Amino acid sequence: MADSINASGKKAVVLFSGGLDSSTVLKIAVDEGFEVVPLSFFYNQRHKVELEHAKKIADRFGLKSHVIINLDFSPIKGSALTDAGIEVPKNRINAENPHETAEDIPATYVPARNTIFLSYALALAEVTLAGDIFIGVNHLDYSGYPDCRPEFIAAYEDMANLATKASVTGKLRYKINTPLINMGKKEIILKAFSINVPLELTHSCYDPVDGLACGLCDSCVLRKKGFGEAGIKDPTRYYKS
Amino acid sequence: MADSINASGKKAVVLFSGGLDSSTVLKIAVDEGFEVVPLSFFYNQRHKVELEHAKKIADRFGLKSHVIINLDFSPIKGSALTDAGIEVPKNRINAENPHETAEDIPATYVPARNTIFLSYALALAEVTLAGDIFIGVNHLDYSGYPDCRPEFIAAYEDMANLATKASVTGKLRYKINTPLINMGKKEIILKAFSINVPLELTHSCYDPVDGLACGLCDSCVLRKKGFGEAGIKDPTRYYKS
Predict the structure, then answer these.
(1) From the CA of A75, how many Å to the nearest CA of chain B?
(2) What are the C-alpha distances in Å from B31 to residues B10, B57, B173, B179?
């Protein structure tokens, strides 16, 4: 039985938004020799410009297999990322000590988003015969999202292996890979730089203005801080800086 | 802390296809006093006529809250239910002894479908403050789908309670309710009859012809068998019988 597990070779679905973290994960998976299927979502997100970045990065890596799925989040109200009526919090966190000022889960939280993203990744992994799924979550310099924590990922992997025909019949055993899980932004940026991720093409901002990063949302603040600590020039074009 | 769990009252999201099983589950949830949000999906399924049945049944129960979400399954190939090029198996199972002839998982299996359905239900449950999710899975007279088994449901519930802001902050504790899990079709039909489910409005067929049930797919065969064993007149209009 063991011989048949993931016998189709090293194939992986990589959840890929075009951001700094998932672009780094994508490059890690490519460098590890996986045949990669990058998976992005259009869910009418406020920062839908990230998909243009994702396409450019997939092109740069020569990945023709990039899949973009349309998600209907319209009945799932209440997130600043999908509801134009809710403002993205600005200047919420202290760049010097993000956890000191950001104990709460912010308005940019999208209900069950990573659960839905991973579930599509699981379906795509089953039909492409990929045993591995990569996701760029990390729980250190993060915004407090529950679905970025190691305990969530472990529970998802357990569930996934009971969910599908491929896993139940022993054809595949799913592994949810989280190579950034214990990294802070500084470490992620140093890693990205060392493996030639095109940092200038990545997009992190939740609330871009004319396609430029706002510089004030949690994601921008954490990104700026990370570049500063890494001692690497931040190539991001900010609307305000 | 315990006081705040599901303090918003008895509210439930019910996965509801318009079929016999989920219509029965919907009525069970209504009868148990839940404020119910029925959730259906359009995924360009071969049997999309089921949504018309779902709307009629929700209307019959006076449920204005019916939510229909569009799912993009186009990149998820390989199922007879979503791919016009794959035939729905006919005369596959023996009506007298379904498990004897149907050991394999059939072509109507849709990769990770219940995982994706439940993930949307979880998101909708979070934003509607519903602590309960109902799903009409059963593992006796079923077609062999892995995501209809109790062990899958238990793992999903564990994962769900680690996934969301509402569960992590103690506002809600999610319960995945499967009232039909140990019932065969006969028992489900007797239950449905006893609680006045409008059986004539429910739709089960995977491969309808001019809106009528084919009578030959697994779902039709199991439904026919169930009505026969229950001794209740089958109100289904079959194209072939």
Answers:
(1) 7
(2) 12, 15, 21, 13
pLDDT at B182 over 60: yes
Question: Which positions of chain A have pLDDT values less than 50?
Answer: 1-4, 6-8, 101-102, 241
Q: Which residues of B touch A (CB under 8 A)?
A: 67, 69-73, 75-78, 105, 109, 111-116, 118-120, 122-124, 126-127, 145-147, 149, 151-152, 155-156, 158-160, 162-169
Which range has the top average pLDDT, A59-68, B3-12, B38-47, B212-221?
Answer: A59-68
- Asked if residues A232 and A189 have their Cβ atoms less than 8 Å apart, the reply is yes
The count of C-alpha atoms lying within 13 angstroms of the C-alpha of A73, restricted to the half-sphere facing its C-beta, is 26
Domain that residue A218 falls in: 2-230
Model confidence, pTM? 0.91
Q: Which residues neighbour A152 within 8 Å (Cβ) at sequence distance 6 or greater? A: A114, A146, B159, B162, B163
Side by side, which strands form the sheet with A67-70? A67-70, A35-42, A11-15, A132-134, A175-177
Q: Please report, as a single letter, which amino acid is at residue B24.
A: T
Our CA-based measurement puts residue B126 at a distance from the nearest CA of chain A, in whole angstroms, of 7
Structural domain count of chain A: 1
Bridge partners of residue B14, in order along the sequence: B38, B134
In a domain, B171, yes or no: yes
pLDDT for position A231: 97
Q: Which residues of A touch B66 (CB under 8 A)?
A: none
Of A114, A156, A165, the CB nearest to B105: A165
**A236 is a domain residue:** no
Q: Which two tokens stand for residue A50?
A: 């990230």
The verdict on a CB contact (< 8 Å) between B159 and A156 is: yes
Closest CA to B81 of B13, B139, B19: B19
Please spell the DSSP secondary structure of A2-64, one letter per residue. Answer: GGGTTTT-SEEEEE--SSHHHHHHHHHHHHTT-EEEEEEEES--TTTTHHHHHHHHHHHTT-T
CA distance B126 to A141: 25
Q: What are phi and psi of B54, to 5 degrees?
A: -60, -45
Residue type, A73: F
Q: Which helix (H) or strand (E) holds B175?
A: strand B175-177
**Alpha helices, H only, chain A:** 20-31, 50-60, 98-101, 113-128, 150-163, 165-168, 185-194, 218-230
Residue A216 lies in a domain: yes
Q: CATH number of the domain at A214, please.
A: 3.40.50.620
Cα–Cα distance, A93 to A217 (Å, whole number): 8
Q: What is the CA radius of gyration of chain B?
A: 18
Please, which residues have CB within 8 angstroms of residue A197's CB and are 6 or more apart in sequence? Answer: A20, A23, A24, A27
Determine, yes or no, domain membership for B15: yes
This model of the complex carries an ipTM of: 0.90
